[in-house]
Design goal:
Strand order of the largest sheet: 2-1-3-4-5-11
Radius of gyration: 21 Å
Bound molecules: alpha-L-arabinofuranose
Order of helices and strands: HEHEHEHEEHEHEHEHEHEHEEH
CATH superfamily of the largest domain: Response regulator
Strand content: 15-25%
Oligomer: single chain
Length: 324
């Protein structure tokens, strides 16, 4: 009963947010082909990490700067909430829908509905697994497989002798979890000294990373390296390692992905050993693409974000200018 009430309440909350628009408001407005203001329905994953918070701010700030009327919804990491939000945007006849899919599969039906309503869709940050490429105009975001490869390359170059790795995976079924695992495995394949002894999802959250790491520390007799699919899970793992009386960054090396401020701070303090960057500041490029697709202009099918990596020394130098 309680569960039903909670579920109903969150659906109402989602629609309240969607209907009110969570609009960024203000400023001048940008118009599409028909001369009307461009309205973007944006279905965000949630607020699971520092990366996501920075991404949301970038989208909201840049919509405002571009004069695009933004309707924003937070799916609380649930696919059904994102699907409901997209359906609501279709009903509201927005000019363009943008979203970052919680998971890779299960989108064809709702995206077909958007296509039939002549509403262009832009995938941002995460892609979908579908054979029908006509369901969206473009995909703007990182190359997650490459991020996993960078993590694997650093590991291979920086450890010697038998090395036991535990992996904190992102949300099960999400593109960055699947691809970061794949790229990493590619690079350690054939390195007989390196073994992934445990791998489990921490759902991209700090609490998830901490909880899973606590369990790993109890079940694994020897852990040399943590590979966390994002900074937040790595930061949760640091708490668990300290609580177990070990020194993060020394007794157990830590590799993460994102390079948000908290992660970069831990890296420059020596508690993380290496971070692969994943850039959340996609707002400007997203608004530029939105203006083009609304006008019916051609856009590239794939726009890849440029990113680097950080060692402890590089983090110390970069931290003062870090925006997020
Ligand atoms: O899709 C991007 C990933 O999602 C980020 O790496 C992670 O922090 C977020 O939750």
């Amino acid at each position: 009963m309680l569960k039903k009430i909670t579920t109903a309440a969150s659906v109402v909350a989602l629609f309240a947010l969607t209907a009110c628009g969570g609009s960024s408001g203000g400023g001048s407005t940008t118009t599409g082909q028909s001369g009307d203001t461009i309205t973007m329905g944006f279905a965000q994953v949630g607020a699971e990490s520092g990366w996501r918070t920075a991404n949301t701010k970038s989208v909201q700030d840049e919509a405002k700067a571009a004069g695009i009327d933004l309707k924003f919804s937070d799916a609380q990491q649930k696919q059904e909430n994102q699907i409901k939000a997209i359906r609501s945007y279709i009903q509201q006849k927005v000019s363009v829908i943008a979203f970052s899919p919680v998971v890779e599969t299960g989108w064809d039906t709702v995206l077909l509905e958007a296509k039939r309503a002549n509403i262009p869709v832009i995938l941002t940050d995460r892609s979908i697994d579908s054979d029908d490429k006509s369901l969206y105009k473009t995909f703007l975001g990182s190359d997650f497989v490459e991020e996993g490869r960078k993590a694997g390359d650093w590991l291979v170059a920086n450890v010697s002798g038998p090395t036991n790795v535990v992996e904190l995976q992102g949300t099960t079924g999400a593109a960055p979890a699947i691809d970061r695992k794949k790229g990493f495995e590619e690079k350690i394949a054939g390195k007989s000294d390196i073994k992934v002894v445990a791998s489990q999802t921490g759902d991209f959250t700090r609490s998830g990373g901490k909880q899973v790491m606590e369990a790993f520390l109890k079940s694994q007799p020897k852990i040399d390296v943590v590979y966390a699919h994002n900074d937040d899970m790595g930061l949760g793992a640091i708490e668990a390692i300290k609580a177990a009386g070990k020194v993060p960054g020394k007794d157990i090396k830590i590799i993460t992905v994102d390079a948000v401020k908290d992660g970069m701070t831990a890296l420059s303090n020596g508690e993380i050993n290496f971070i692969v960057e994943c850039n959340p500041l996609l707002g400007k490029q997203l608004m530029d693409l939105a203006k083009k697709v609304v006008k019916g202009e051609e856009v590239p099918a794939r726009v890849v974000t440029e990113e680097g990596t950080f060692t402890q020394e590089q983090a110390k130098a970069a931290l003062p200018q870090r925006q997020y």
